[in-house]
Amino acid sequence: MKRPTFEFRPLTEEDLPLLAEWLSRPHLQEWWREGEITLERVREKYLPRIAGDDDAVPFIVHQEGLPIGYIQYYRAWVNPDWWPDDPGKGVYGIDQFIADEDRLNRGIGTGFILQFVRFLMEDPAIVEVRVDPRPDNGRAIRCYEKVGFVRVGNIVTPDGLATLMVLPRSLMEEP
């Protein structure tokens, strides 16, 4: 059986109403805790990313032409206060979500994260990708482990307690 492939389209201003609606969904509010989601707040946060004035580079995830989620990458060394170590150049972080609750627990997140990490690793300067889910988000942690991320341990971030997970380039290289 062929694994589904995903397309990562850069987030545009036209996507922001959809993104605001997604971020308001209970299954995302449980983990993201963005507070009350308004289109204005989404515009304030994501327009700088769209314009390239923010370190995060955002995408809408499409499967079979349909928007199903969000993913972004960022250079981890730009915000060293976030991490307990000094990530160093070449260490990137990612954040993502699946928009529809009925798509959870079907391997979709594992598939698009793996494809996205492989896309990032096409840049030979990237030495590691990291994620920082909340420790009680077992579904996310299991998903990242299926992709190949390794738990380092719990850390305290500006958003609270998180589980640092890393995927070094060496674990992504084909034998």
Plain-language structure description:
- The chain has 6 helices and 7 strands.
- Helix 1 (16-23) packs across helix 3.
- The longest helix is centred in the N-terminal third of the chain and has 13 residues, at 39-51.
- The model has no long low-confidence stretch (mean pLDDT 86).
- It is of the alpha+beta class and 175 residues long.
- It has one domain (6-172): Gcn5-related N-acetyltransferase (GNAT) (Aminopeptidase, 3-Layer(aba) Sandwich).
- Helices cover 31% and strands 29% of the residues.
- The chain has helices spanning 16-23, 26-32, 39-51, 108-120, 138-147, 169-172, and strands spanning 6-10, 57-63, 66-75, 91-98, 128-131, 150-157, 160-168.
- Strands 1-2-3-4-5-7-6 form a 7-stranded mixed β-sheet, sandwiched between helices.
CATH topology description: Aminopeptidase
Q: Given this structure, which CATH class is correct?
A: Alpha Beta
- Please count the beta strands (DSSP E, at least 2 residues each): 7
Strand arrangement across the biggest beta sheet = 1-2-3-4-5-7-6
Encode the helix/strand succession as letters: EHHHEEEHEHEEH
**Average pLDDT, to the nearest integer?**
86
Number of domains: 1
Count up the helices. 6
Radius of gyration: 16 Å
Strand content: 25-35%
Estimate the helix proportion, in percent.
Answer: 25-40%
The largest pleated sheet is described as: 7 strands, mixed
Q: Label the structural class.
A: alpha+beta
- CATH homolog superfamily: Gcn5-related N-acetyltransferase (GNAT)
Ends distance: 22 Å
Low-confidence parts, pLDDT < 50 over ≥5 residues?
A: none
Note the overall shape: globular
CATH architecture: 3-Layer(aba) Sandwich
